[in-house]
C-alpha cells in the first residue's frame, strides 16, 4: 500500500499529504479478491482469465500496480470457455489508481465536506474517501445491488460503514440530501439534472462526459443559478458508461453503412488521431453524433481508424502501409472534411491541451464547450 502511494506521488497523481496517507492506509486487495485479465487462449479466442487477488505473490503484486482491474462481466454476454476463463463484456472494474488519485485531488475536498460518489463498484474509492473524510460524510450509489452489497462487506472488513445505496446513479442519491462534492466513476453524455439539484452553491463536481468520438473528465463548480461551469482536467481517463440496468448494456442500433464513394489524399492521418487526445476531443465537438471505431478489412485484414455517423456515412484512414495519407469514405463527404477542419484549427491554435477547453451546463440543461483563450464555442446535443 505504501509503495503504491509512493509511486502515485512520484508520478504526480497524488499531490497532497492527506491523499497520500489515504492510499497508504487503504488495502486495495480487500476490494479486489477476484479480477479478470484479457488474453488470447490456446484456441485463439480472446478471453477474460480469472485471477484471485491473494492466490499468489504475483497476483497480489498485480493488485498494487497502477492498472485497471476488471472485476465483473455482463452475464448476458459471458460464456465460460474453460475452468478459469470467460468471454463477454466487462461491466465493472477497479479503476486505475493514478486516475482515481488525480480525480480525488481535482475534487478539492476539505474536512467536513459531504461527498456523493456515483458508481460504487468495488468500494475501494469509497474507502479512500472514508480514510480522508470519515465514513459519516461519504455517500455512494451504484445501479447494481449485488455490487453494493459486496462493496458493503469489503468496506466493513476495513472498518468503514459509509452510506451506500442501490439505484440509477444518473438520478442522484435516493434521498433529498445535498452534497459539497460529487464524483462520478462512470461516463455520462451530459451532467444529469439530479446531480445539480443535489448540489449547493460552490459544490465541485468531477465526472467523465462522453461526447461521442471522445470525451473526458471535467471539473465543474455549481453556482447560485444552478449553472455548472469549469474545464476539462489535466487528469485524463475514461470510464464505462452509466447503465440504467444493473447487469447489462443496451446494444446500440446502427444504420446500414453507406456504399463506398471515393479514396482521396488527406491532411490528417490515423497516427495524428490516435496520438493526440485533445484532437479527438475536438473531433467530437466538430462531429456530434459520430463515433470512432477500428475497422478491419475482411479481405486483407488491414486495420484502419474509422469515423462513422448515425446517418450511415463513414470515413476511414489506414493505420499502417503505403496509403496512410489517404481517406476512403462513403455517404456524406463533409464527414472527413470536418475532421480535416478540426485538425487545421487545432494546429493553427498551437495544439491546445484539453484543459484549455471549458465546459458549461446551463440551468436549463443545455451545454457547451469553449476554447478558453479565444472563446470559440461548440454547442452540445442535449444530454440527460
From TrEMBL:
Residues 247-267 are annotated as: Disordered. One of its GO terms (molecular function) is methyltransferase activity. Pfam families: PCMT. It comes from the Bacteria. InterPro entries: PCMT, SAM-dependent_MTases_sf. CDD domains: AdoMet_MTases (cd02440). One of its GO terms (biological process) is methylation. It is found in: Cytoplasm. Keywords: Cytoplasm, Methyltransferase, S-adenosyl-L-methionine, Transferase. Residues 254-263 have a biased composition (Basic and acidic residues). Its EC number is 2.1.1.77. Its main location: cytoplasm. Belongs to the methyltransferase superfamily. L-isoaspartyl/D-aspartyl protein methyltransferase family. This is Protein-L-isoaspartate O-methyltransferase. It comes from Streptomyces coffeae.
